């Protein structure tokens, strides 16, 4: 697949988020003398143009972004410059001359290759308020940067910084972005005046990342509590992944007990099991994932950044073929690479006692290790080649976004260790397995953030919650309201409720408790025994669900006045429509609670729902896009409001729980028949956009996209890998497709005539927007967008270089495509508006 083109479709709005609103693109020509603002963006400049010095005393703003500048000699002559944009150039040495721009208030110098900033620059910039230095190669900040006393905004994300001590003393600093650096300890003094702080993607120890994502309030509260007492703990999130029956549970349980534990087939993992294991001062939070495909759709709920992954591979069923490697090894490595690219993976070969001889084992180990090596090298080479291709193009500055993206991917560092052979039946092998894990997990080169500094009170609160459970002051199911927890806890000490909340947030993030305070209907529910919640999850998401429904006892049905006939409908609806009735869910959950000895009518209502209130479990399933609410009675809603681009559409009543209704689990659908019927035929006049995913569309992505999109539009039809929905007059189809072995998601809108075309493009944008939200969870992905030529059989296409700006910024107009019609490389011509979104769009980003 050719991955780039040379069309600039939409005027680039170069900055997103905070800065965008401040940034006004000046459209003045470079030769217009006497102007105060000059725009030289995207002109392939290698040196500053002569016209820049015209009337130099008057110039206050210069835009030089997206050029090929390495130096800006002479820039200091523009003595009255207040805003300078040098972003997306090729600057390696920070231009010392900038120190003479005493009037400078705003400086963009992000996306260059700057490695070092000399001293004596920032003390001279006493008016500088806004400084964007992100995406460079900085290893340290100059120690005198804190003399830049007017600075209110600083962005140094995506560099290689190890500490921020130099920033202490910037009294006016409010917004600080330090994401994706190499920071471990943050100075407390930094947080006195900040109003915005982002630090994800650092190996943080003090405060740990789980505290930082809680925001400034949590960070300040952490430092306050740290003053009383502190301790350093080592903890590792350890995930056991691999195909079904590979030996994950055996490894996990044997690691815990430190001797071989036999796992019966009847005792197979359903969903996930969590275990906390303490070994030689290291706390392992072990997550044992079930291997059956049915459970993959819930993995995203639990898989978190940076983990130690044990990948179990059954060597007795491994057979040296590429298919076998894909099934047992590369499927999992690709998934981890896309989802949690910072992880460390230890492949473990199990069942070696069942292999015919040592030679067979050695051969398989060699095969896996070398194919793994090839896989990782191939990926690195592909990224390098793509980068080379972009750099070798006529104008590389046009592709700076793509190059940054590639650089970001290359910086990710998935580490795959050598395959370890473990005979799970032998005590000495289990001992060796344990020693190996301890060695690898505590190796700071593998997991730099294993150590963390915590205030003593954090561990005290965790211990106290366990005591409350043991003393029955918290019910055994572990669900307690936040206010009860605050009351119980506070009555025993003089703890500030905000500090306690901050600790609870931390415990939630490390997986010790579950508290989704961001889901409005769940913000009062704290689950201090996550295992119970997971058991309930497993009551519904399981491989043998049909059997579970069929096994519901007759008395249970009678008690709820349900006929056998209804039960049959539940089974057929589930098998044919992947739709599970809420009443069936309620019965299955109750059965699970009974098993746990927690059978209390009130709890069932709380968990599943009652009257018009959906329960916590349903909220969670829908929040995590595992299922979508489905009106069994009427699939088509004739009262669907018309889609209006300028107005955000709100579901009439999204929170209503209806026992007669049902939930749809799209991944269980077998075909696309309904979707095909509702969509009808593809037409040449359809709007048609392809969004390509490299290396592939991640497993579970399309399922989530269906839930995310269809639950937004009440009139929808869902199939295995296609869905279609109607909003007002616009009918839209979204499906997965493979073209020349490249995977893409196709979006099609039926042409509704001249007046409706803007609305159709809006629909395309809505879906692209949802894909953008989703792709955040797969940071290892690269994407490309284009419109295929509409002529039948033609393989040409029209690339979208600025698609991200269009989707995210929500505004833009066609800047360079002036023609009413466009012609593809094979000579076919079509109206431009059918190829690109050419009009003006409203700027609301829903
Ligand atoms: N002989 C032998 N049997 C093993 C070994 N490792 C695991 N088993 C057995 O293989 C079967 C499957 O092991 P599990 O640990 O349940 O596998 P799993 O990967 O957790 O399986 P799921 O829960 O289905 O995903 C069990 O009967 C284990 O006792 C091994 O090294 N040798």
Describe this structure in words.
With about 850 residues, the protein is α/β, with parallel strands linked by helices. Among the domains are: about 545-665, no CATH class; about 675-835, TATA-Binding Protein (2-Layer Sandwich). The protein contains 23 helices and 32 strands. It has an 8-stranded parallel beta sheet, with no helix packed on it. The protein is globular and about 90 Å long. It starts with 17 loop residues before the first helix and ends in a 15-residue tail after the last strand. About 40% of the residues are buried. InterPro entries: COR-B, Leu-rich_rpt, Leu-rich_rpt_typical-subtyp, LRR_dom_sf, LRR_domain-containing, LRR_R13L4/SHOC2-like, P-loop_NTPase, ROC. GO terms for molecular function: nucleotide binding. It holds the Pfam family COR-B.
Which features characterize this protein?
31% helix, binds guanosine-5'-triphosphate, 846 residues, 23 helices, Leu-rich_rpt_typical-subtyp, eight-stranded parallel β-sheet, eight-stranded mixed β-sheet, leucine-rich repeat, Roc domain-containing protein, disordered N terminus, TATA-Binding Protein, nucleotide-binding, 32 strands, alpha/beta
């Amino acid at each position: 697949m050719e991955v780039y083109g040379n069309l600039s479709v939409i005027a680039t709005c170069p900055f997103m988020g905070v800065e965008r609103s401040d940034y006004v693109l000046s459209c003045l020509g470079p030769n217009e003398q006497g102007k105060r603002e000059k725009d030289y963006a995207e002109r392939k400049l290698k040196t500053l143009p002569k016209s820049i010095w015209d009337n130099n005393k008057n110039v206050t703003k210069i835009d030089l972004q997206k050029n090929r500048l390495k130096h800006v000699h002479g820039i200091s002559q523009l003595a009255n410059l207040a805003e300078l944009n040098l972003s997306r150039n090729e600057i390696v040495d920070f231009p010392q001359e900038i120190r003479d721009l005493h009037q400078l208030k705003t400086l963009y110098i992000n996306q260059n290759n700057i490695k070092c900033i000399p001293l004596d620059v920032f003390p001279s910039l006493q008016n500088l308020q806004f400084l964007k230095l992100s995406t460079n190669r900085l290893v340290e900040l100059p120690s005198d940067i804190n003399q830049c006393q007017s600075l209110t905004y600083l962005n140094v994300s995506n560099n290689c910084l190890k500490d921020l001590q130099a920033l202490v003393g910037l009294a006016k600093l409010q917004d600080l972005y330090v994401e994706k650096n190499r920071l471990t300890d943050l100075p407390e003094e930094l947080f006195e005046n900040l109003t915005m702080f982002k630090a994800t993607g650092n190996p943080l120890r003090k405060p740990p990342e789980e505290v930082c994502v809680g925001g400034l309030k949590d960070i300040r509260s952490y430092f306050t509590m740290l003053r009383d007492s502190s301790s350093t703990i080592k903890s590792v999130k350890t995930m056991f992944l691999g195909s079904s029956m590979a030996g994950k549970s055996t490894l996990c349980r044997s690691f815990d007990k430190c001797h071989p534990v036999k796992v019966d087939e009847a005792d197979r993992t359903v969903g996930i099991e969590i275990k906390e294991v303490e070994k030689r001062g290291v706390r392992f939070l072990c997550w044992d994932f079930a291997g059956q495909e049915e459970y993959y759709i819930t993995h995203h709920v639990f898989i978190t950044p940076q983990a130690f992954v044990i990948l179990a591979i059954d060597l007795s069923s491994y057979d040296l073929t590429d298919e076998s490697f894909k099934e047992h090894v590369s499927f999992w490595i690709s998934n981890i690479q896309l989802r949690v690219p910072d992880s460390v993976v230890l492949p473990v070969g199990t069942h070696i006692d069942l292999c015919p001889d040592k030679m067979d084992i050695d051969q398989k180990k060699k095969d896996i290790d070398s194919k793994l090596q090839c896989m990782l090298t191939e990926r690195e080479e592909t990224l390098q080649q793509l980068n080379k291709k972009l750099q070798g193009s006529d104008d590389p500055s046009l592709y700076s976004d793509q190059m940054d993206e590639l650089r970001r991917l290359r910086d990710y560092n998935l580490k795959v260790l050598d395959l370890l052979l473990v005979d799970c039946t032998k005590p000495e092998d289990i001992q060796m397995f344990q020693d190996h894990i301890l060695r690898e997990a505590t190796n700071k080169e593998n997991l730099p953030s294993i150590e963390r500094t915590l205030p003593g009170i954090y561990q005290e609160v965790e211990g106290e919650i366990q005591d409350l459970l043991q003393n029955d002051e918290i019910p055994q199911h572990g669900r307690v309201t936040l206010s009860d927890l605050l009351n119980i806890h506070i009555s025993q000490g003089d703890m500030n409720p905000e500090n306690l909340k901050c600790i609870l947030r931390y415990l939630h993030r490390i997986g010790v408790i579950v508290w989704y305070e961001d889901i409005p209907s769940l913000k009062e529910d704290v689950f201090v025994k996550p295992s119970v919640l997971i058991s309930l999850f497993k009551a519904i998401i399981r491989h043998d669900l049909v059997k579970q429904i069929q096994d519901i006892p007759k008395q249970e049905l009678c008690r709820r006045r349900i006929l056998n006939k209804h039960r049959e409908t539940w089974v057929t609806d589930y098998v044919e429509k992947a739709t599970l009735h809420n009443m069936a869910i309620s019965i299955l959950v109750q059965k699970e609670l009974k098993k746990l000895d927690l059978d209390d009518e009130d709890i069932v209502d709380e968990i599943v729902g009652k009257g018009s209130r959906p329960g916590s479990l349903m909220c969670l399933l829908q929040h995590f896009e595992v299922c979508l609410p489905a009106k069994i009675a009427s699939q088509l809603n004739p009262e669907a409001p018309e889609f209006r681009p300028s107005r955000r559409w709100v579901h009439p009543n999204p929170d209503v729980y209806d026992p007669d209704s049902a939930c749809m689990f799209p991944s269980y659908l077998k075909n696309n028949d309904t979707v095909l019927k509702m969509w009808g035929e593809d037409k040449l006049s359809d709007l048609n956009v392809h969004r390509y995913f490299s290396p592939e569309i991640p497993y579970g992505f399309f399922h989530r996209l269906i839930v995310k999109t269809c639950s937004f539009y009440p009139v929808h039809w869902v199939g295995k890998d296609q869905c279609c929905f109607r909003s007002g007059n616009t009918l839209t189809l979204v499906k997965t497709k493979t073209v020349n072995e490249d995977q893409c998601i196709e979006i099609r809108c039926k042409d509704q005539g001249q007046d409706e075309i803007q609305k159709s493009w809006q629909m395309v944008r809505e879906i692209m927007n949802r894909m953008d939200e989703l792709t955040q969870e797969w940071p290892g992905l690269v994407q490309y967008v284009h419109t295929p030529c509409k002529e039948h059989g033609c393989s040409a296409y029209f690339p979208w270089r600025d698609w991200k700006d269009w989707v995210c910024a929500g505004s833009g107009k066609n800047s360079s495509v002036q023609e009413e019609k466009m012609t593809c490389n094979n000579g076919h011509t079509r109206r431009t508006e059918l190829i690109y979104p050419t009009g003006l769009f409203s700027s609301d980003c829903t």
